[in-house]
Design goal:
Diverse_Enzym_Activities; Beta-lactamase; nine-stranded mixed sheet; Beta-lactam-related; 12 helices; alpha+beta; Beta-lactam/transpept-like
Length: about 350
Amino acid sequence: MACAAVLFSSAPQTHAQQETDLQNEPSWEAVNQEIASGQFGQVTSLVVSRDGEIVHEHYFDDSPEAARNTRSVTKTITGMLVGKAIEEGHIASASAPVLNHINHTPLNPDPRKDAMSFDALLSMSGPLECNDSMPWSRGHEERMYSIEDWVGFFLDLPIRGFPAWQTKPEDSPHGRAFSYCTAGTVALGAAVENATGEKLEDYARRTVFDPLQIETAEWQYSPLGLAMGGGGLGLSSRSLEKIGRVYASGGVFEGRQILSSEWVETSITPKAVVPDQDGMEYGYLWWLRDYAAGDTAYKAAQMSGNGGNKVIIIPKLKLVTVITKTDFGQRNAHQQAEELFESRILPLILADSN
């Protein structure tokens, strides 16, 4: 296994030189040079660990301690907090109604809202018309930001409809119709806050960050002061690696059970199929897909945020990879990060194992 290394500036190579290095003798230095050339977009940091040990670390902006705004990577941490609240008995189960823990009367009440479960919002398959992938959706997150009460915004949305050209939940794999909804994750954060009686940021610090020795967490807040569970939490790349390591190791960090193994397992088990993304499924606020190395496919789970930000885990290998980027709003940002992992990082890790 390669030794841990914290590397900063390096002289750029031509693309031909980089390809020659990778073909002749794949190395972390060659990968660093490719990244620095911009081949994979604006990567700011790369942290790779295996079996709980950092095997490679490089900061392309010379800022190892920086709190990275990795956007929707935050959602997975909110899912983690739901799991902790269930584990501690504050929430009955993932099938419990979310409105049991939110004091809000919707403008357009409906029994399906009353029955809306944590499971539905964790798996992005709730009953409300909310889809960040469609700019005309009533529940699009950009509409939420312009009003004061973000939780009320979500709960006041109408029920989703399914025209003939869309697959209904009962006809979908896993019995759920996926619809990516940041506002729903904001509501999950509010429900955790109300269920536990602690501010979301305080609950996160007590149950997750302090046990992981994460000292800096820069939250964003709604106009009403709710910590934003749907995105924008600033954490260092090393802190993100620790979060990933918990899930890659069955909930354990340095011998301590941070999260129940049952919650970890169910979180990274497919709950819905993501439409128009071949092979992509969704768990509890985790994106799920396979990565190939030769003839072998490795099941991976990933935290993912705008700009191509990724925390990718392969539990079978106890592998965690943190890729932070600033390609916000760029169409190919995620593909670049995933290509970097599959074509460069995973082969190096496997080579180090031989």
